Amino acid sequence: LDNVRNRLCVAFIGVLSAGMAVVSSFGLLLYAGVPFVITVANSPFLILGIGVDDMFIMLANWQQTNVNDPVEKRMGDTYKEAAMSVTITTLTNVLGFYIGLMSDFPSVQAFCMYTSTAILFCFFYNITFFGGFLALNGRREASNRHWLTCMKVPVKAPKGKPKAYSLCCTGGDYDRETGLEKEQIFTHFFKSYYGPFITKPWTKVCVILLYAGYLAGGIYGCFNLKQGIEMKHLAADDSYAISYYDDEKNFFSNYGPNVMVVVSEAFPYWDEYEASRLDRCMENFNNLSFVRKELFTSWLDSYRLFARSSSLDLNDENAFMANLPTFLTNFPDFKLDVNITNGSIIASRVFVQTADITNASMEIRMINELRDTADKCNATKLLVFHPLFIYLDQYSVIVSGTALNVGVTAAVMLVISLLLIPNPLCSLWVTFSIGSVITGVTGFMALWDVNLDSISMIILVVCIGFTVDFSAHISYAFVSSNKATANEKAIDALFILGYPVIQGAVSSIVGVVVLAFAKQHIFRTFFKIMFLVMLFGLAHGLVFIPVLLTWFSCSSSPHKKGTKQEVPRLRAVVPYNMKSEIKTVIYDNRAFVLGEYAPQSVKTQQTQIFVHQIPNRWTCDPDCP
Question: pTM of the entire structure?
Answer without folding.
Answer: 0.69
